[in-house]
Amino acid sequence: LQYDALKEFLNVLCGNLLSAIAGEEASFKLMIPEVKKLDRNGWEAFRQAPGAIPFLMDDSPALLRFVRQDQ
Fold it and tell me: pTM, whole model, 2 decimals?
């Protein structure tokens, strides 16, 4: 259930972020956000990836990375 709530949060966040960047009239093809549980090595690799943003969600550490793929 926590993963579903996190995916919904990320979906709303990405939609708002895209509208803020490109305007309300722009059209986008969004994919379902991915949520993965990482071991320590996976966490460090993801944390060091370009654009990774660490934050806390309900006192638990989380990482967010927004990837734009142009057509």
Answer: 0.57
